[in-house]
Amino acid sequence: MTNVTVVEGDFRATDAKFSIVVARFNSFVVESLLTGAIDALVRHGVAESNIEVIRVPGAFELPLAVKQVANKRKPDAIIALGAVIRGGTPHFDYVAGECTKGVASVMLETDIPCSFGVLTTDSIEQAIERSGTKAGNKGAEAAIGALEMVSLIRNL
Ligand SMILES: Nc1c(NC[C@H](O)[C@H](O)[C@H](O)CO)[nH]c(=O)[nH]c1=O
Ligand SMILES: CC(=O)[C@@H](O)COP(=O)(O)O
């Protein structure tokens, strides 16, 4: 691979500004995602003063808020956090589907990396496991992904 150009990000874009958009629904899980996301950024050297938190009612509202944040506040990256937990009706599919598509389309429209720390689980247990217990913390993973994407975009 000696003649191949490889462009990638690292985790050193510590001057970057991050907006974390957080859904309040299932807050017992989502607050742990938020703690994990902030902790991951701060541990990598991001100042708390470069992190802001915006709250919305639920995951369905995340795309509009992410879009408004992208256009009005122009952070280097946005981290969307929420937890959609399957119930007994098809509601899960609509909320999770629109949330996923919406956040992804804002990222492509605005060129601002939007990382997806929204749990979409079949049970409360699965959500708890992914918000800081045995299966890690998806909020922290989303934050690290955002940090890398800021760096990658600067390097491209
Ligand atoms: N059931 C879940 C929701 N539902 C609420 C919607 O996101 C939305 O706030 C409401 O329909 C008003 O527009 N939200 C979650 O984040 N997680 C869920 O499991
Ligand atoms: C993800 C959902 O919308 C879900 O929590 C709703 O539950 P249900 O399908 O039992 O109304």
From TrEMBL:
Pfam family, one: DMRL_synthase
SUPFAM superfamilies linked to this entry: Lumazine synthase
Catalysed reaction, written as an equation: (2S)-2-hydroxy-3-oxobutyl phosphate + 5-amino-6-(D-ribitylamino)uracil = 6,7-dimethyl-8-(1-D-ribityl)lumazine + phosphate + 2 H2O + H(+)
InterPro entries: LS, LS/RS, LS/RS_sf
GO terms for MF: 6,7-dimethyl-8-ribityllumazine synthase activity
Pathway of action: Cofactor biosynthesis; riboflavin biosynthesis; riboflavin from 2-hydroxy-3-oxobutyl phosphate and 5-amino-6-(D-ribitylamino)uracil: step 1/2
Metal-binding recorded as keyword: no
Residues binding (2S)-2-hydroxy-3-oxobutyl phosphate, per UniProt: 88-89, 130
Record: active site: 91 (proton donor)
GO cellular-component term (any): cytosol
Assembly and binders: Forms an icosahedral capsid composed of 60 subunits, arranged as a dodecamer of pentamers.
Family membership: Belongs to the DMRL synthase family.
HAMAP family: Lumazine_synth
Protein's name in the database: 6,7-dimethyl-8-ribityllumazine synthase
Biological source species: Ketobacter alkanivorans
Name of the gene encoding the protein in the UniProt record: ribH
